[in-house]
Amino acid sequence: MELPLVTRRSLLYGSAVVAGTAALAACTGTSSSPGQDQSGNGPTGGGASTAVGSATEPLPAPGTYQQAPSIDPSLPPVEERLPENPYVIPHHWVTPGKYGGKLNLNTFSTTGAAKADSDRNFFYGHSPLRYLNDGKDIGPGLVESWESNDDASEWTFYFRKGLKWSDGEPFTTENILFWWNEFVIEQKMAVTPPDEARSGTGTLAEFTAVDDTTLRMTFDAPAPLTADRMAMWVNGNIGKNGPIWLMPSHYLKQFHPSYGDDVPDDWDTVGGLMETKADWHRNPDCPTMIGYKCKSFDNTRGVVLERNPYYWAVMPNGDQLPYIDEIQISVVSDAEAGKLQVQQGSVDYTHGPFNQITLNDVQGIRDSAAQAGTEVVLWDSGSGTGSIFFLNYDYPDEELRAVIREPKFRQAISHAFNREAVRRSVYFNTGEPTTGTLSPKAIEYQINDTGRQAYTSWRDAYVAYDPEKAKQLLEEIGVTDSDGDGLRELPSGEKLTLRLDTTADSSQEHKSKDNQLVADLKAVGIEMRINPIAPQTYDDEWKTGQLMGHSNWEVGDGPNHLVYPQWLVPLEYTRWAPLQGQWYQQLGTKTEGTELDVDPWERTPPRMEPEPDGPIQKLWDLYNASKVEPDEMKRHQLVWDMIKIHISDGPFFIGSVANYPQVVVAKTDLKNVPRKENLALGGMVNPWIHPSPAVYDPECYFWDNPDQHTS
Amino acid sequence: MLVFVVRRLAYAVLTVFAVSLVAFFIIELAPGSAITAEISRLRAQGNVVSDQQVQALEEQYGINDPWIVKYGKWAGGLVTGDFGQSFAFREPVADLIWSRLGLSIALSIGAIIVAWAVAIPIGVYSATHRYSLPDNVITVIQFIGVAIPEFLLALAVMTAAVRWGGIEVGGLFSNEYRNAEWSAAKFGDMLGHLWMPLVVITVGSTAWLTRVMRANLFDVLGQQYIQTARAKGVAESRVIWKHAVRNALHPLVMTFGTTLSALISGEAIVSIVFALPTTGQALLQSLIVKDTYVAATLLVFLSILLVIGNVISDLALAWIDPRARTAG
Amino acid sequence: MTATAQISGAGLDEGTSSGTGGPVAPDSKIGEVSQRSLMLRRFRRSKLAVVSLVILLLMYLAAIFAGFLSPNDPAAVNQEYKYAAPSAWTWSGGPAICRVTQEIDPINISTTYVTNCDQPIPLQFFSRGYEYELFGLIPTDRHLFTVPEGRVLVFGADGNGRDLFSRTIHGAQVSLTIGLLGVVVATVLGSIIGTISGYAGGAADTVIQRVIEIIMSVPTIPLWATMAAVMPQDLSVTQRYFVMTMILSLVAWTGLARQVRGKVMGYASADYVAAARSANASGFRIVTTHLLPNAASHIVAVSMLAIPATILAETALSFLGIGMLDPAISWGVLLQDASRVDVLQQYLWVLIPGVAVVLAITCFQLLGDGVRDAVDPYS
């Protein structure tokens, strides 16, 4: 706070170097103790730790290592399997554990295990960098240290030396260039360039492998968010949980027509040869860099994972991870059946949001907890809004659009909305009522007092439940009851009916919120109708701008506003200004400047130019400036300026309850599962870009009694 | 008889062809596509899906071809055993079907056997003890059995089993056996998971078949040849089982096809609730997300199953009752 | 429960005659008593059928007067009554309900209700409540009973605090009529097509029979699901209702058409039809004056037995999320809300609409049986 000039990036970079030298010292000279010293910091016995957060400076390498007794003795010794400087689990709450046992997980998927992306979110080992402390910090992952030039247009990443794939083959920068050259550049397997590979002006970076462990990315303009974005997602695999980044090219080349023989023409299609072979989650032969590798896969039954003996992470005491031998992930095609299994105790660990387990289910799980040997753990969702509602800023009907664009109209809706009722019913009085912001855990709100104030002023801007004020605002803009039927009409006297187009499969909490909102709006004289729409068509229809209201989403998105700014700034069609978002998307493409004489909703794709001095243009200007701003503090300032527009011209999206808890159910015998009190910010479960529980390293979970968990 | 069999089989083939054409057309008529559903899902997770990527996916999957072109591709593959690629399940449709069809057939046939095994004796008892207390109880149970929505019954049975029975529910196996080699213990574990859905699937059909059996037998018992047999002094049990029941079974044989259809529908819904990997579950899911190839192929497979059922019942009937050979 | 079984199998009790066209005593006259009063007499003898008829009539009456009978607006949410149990009744110079207070524990994530019967809230009769339109026409706000404060919850409340009693009787408006209307459409279709098929014979018969076979060769639920998926998205509740009706009847007519065909073929070979034919009566005239009236009672009986299947189908489609959908109120929508583990374990009253479904279907079956026994005593 008092040292705003020391950016997070440079601080971390410095510390990584220091740690590196310390580890080097440990390896070369002094006696065996540093690792043990380190482990002495944490609680050593069983029992729940009360330690909070994770070390931001990498811990020194322990020097001596232990491995699981089940590891094949014919493999090289553990010291040789690990890299020079392994990743030492930095979480303060972890305690050294016991090897062995099996973990049973459920994965909810109505269309089989291959599509169960959620269980990939347990393993962070493919990510070049990692989020720490619920996104407050960025620490080393595969990349040990990194640096950039002054204007952040050239980045160099130093990978750990001696990293190995789960088949024992060395990991090199070649594995990254394979992905970059053969898939991103060649546009195979529907892979497209990730944001971190684009500069602030949108041009692609140039990837250079300086040597086997050094990667350089060169941009034509500042790309200040590169490191932040490389911590996002668990990465790896086939690009379902973020960009791929690394592929085991030594294994996969045989399935690529440039290298292999007899590769079929459709090798790169969806579900085709490459996709099935490159998916570590379904192909037992595919090497991984995470703590586990696939043992067997069956699309209807699920996945069995077994230990990766080359995993490059250790506990502070030198135990090579993972502790648990095997993870059995079972597909459950019906959420209710899954809930019963959790109650019964046949599931050892459940990440609620992946299995449709919400606060409503806590009672039932608690009732059977003693029998099932489970415990309910609540982590903060980090949601900025809870269930949201927003109107289409680019609705085709001219008068209606004018009303929707009138800030007072949206402010009136916000004031008419009884958030406390939703908080009571859906969120059991947890969380905090909010106008609707981005995640309260975001760095821009945590960094200093200005940030904290930016958060509270946005959160509280139009949060008050005040129907009288709502009515007064509506009167001011001419939305009055002109024909005396108790419902308000448009200024022209036309009937005003808002339509809340929602997907038919919306979950219970969204439906409850929708019903409450409809009732609240009726109380101030606005008619709103809920219109369920088939999920498979929703996105297409929203793109055309024909839908009026959107409901079943939440805003969370990121430990940093700018890594995922789509809610803050309309950049694509899926959010509150679909046509203007599409306009931004088409800038710099060959579509730009065409079809100007066509009705915006008739263009392909439908798109619309923002008003020159309107809020969206202002947001774009600020955002464009932030993309090439290398100074972190100045970027925060730009974000705060954008928030001011959201307050003066917003709310563009209307939230309900921020930061309610999400449910995790764990067996009491399973240790090293952090409690909310252990987490730096209480958790940040919702955004997939901050991958929970992968950020807490489930590889270090262990059974207190491994013998009791062998099936 | 041979002519009848040949004609019947020819009709069956034609029917399957027509079903495939109509089914494919209707499925394609629905708006949206599996890709839209997928993209929405990815976006909801926070993935950035660019237009470029969408376009690539659409091209690979042939989303924008006219339906008849897609039908041609698919039907051509169907004959050679290549059913295309499932977008929603990320596996070849053939793998998907073969891995699920066994369980579906087992459940359907199991349900038919159970339904008949229960319905015939109870129906006979009911018809021969008309208006007695047990008959009235059976009647009430029958009516309620038909009246309970399957999904609700399934969920209620499952919840009760967890709460009071401590029985494992959901899926086919316990954790212990799920990925183990086949063994007697694993088979037993599977039966332990299957009996509950089987009972739920069967309830409706059993209740209905019992009613049919009861009514038929009662009618037959009133006919003259039964009176004659009785008058001749044939033992009552012999009259009922040898003469009456055999004739009362005709309509039951005729309904084989419709019973099968009902069981397949029931299987689909019950499998969803019990989280069983059956074709029914995959079919309904693929219809909802519009995974055309999976949905159309499964519809055709189930239709083939039904057509076979109908052919069997027709042939059986023709064999029992020569008059039927000239009809339809 | 299993939909197809009912529709196509309903008449199978006389299946032996339908396939082969055996004539069933077409026009017997017993003494001077007319056919109709004879049927009525036979129907009255079946006590269960009569009781069922009475129950069903009451249910339809409740559906017609749903607004008047409902103390609360079925769509009105009130989060202070989320999953509140049915009101506790007491006496205070008349029937009265106890007060309930909601208590939420944000630590243990639970909602509990404290019931206090010290100051009961008395029921008011023929009192003013929310506004509605009687028969969809007359705006009024009179209700059979209301309470001056709080919420009277005869069946308890759902997850949004909506009154399940009001919702159940409003749901009957959709569910009880969707079955009836669907079957009426199916009956008309089935009768016309079945008659043509049976009377014309030849090529027309073959084509119709093949089409029926094709429709019957697709399992019912997936077929409905396919058609429901084609349904346009932006339908109003009423439009959706009619489309659902059409979808349900599109499958249901096939079984009926087969039955009718069998009957018609039977009658067509009867002497009096041959006589009419030789007197140069037109085909249309023969069908309308001789064949249909004779088959009518049989058609009615078979149709009755098809109603339960359509009601069940409506609930099944809602469960799959492709039938009627919230905010529409139907029994299917209510049961979809109930098909959750937490409901079954903690809020059993949310299942009450399920009881209504079972009751209605059982009554329809008994009634159908009674009617069939009355019109077709020999089958």
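qc> Residues 268 and 284 of chain B are 7 Å apart (CA to CA).
qc> done
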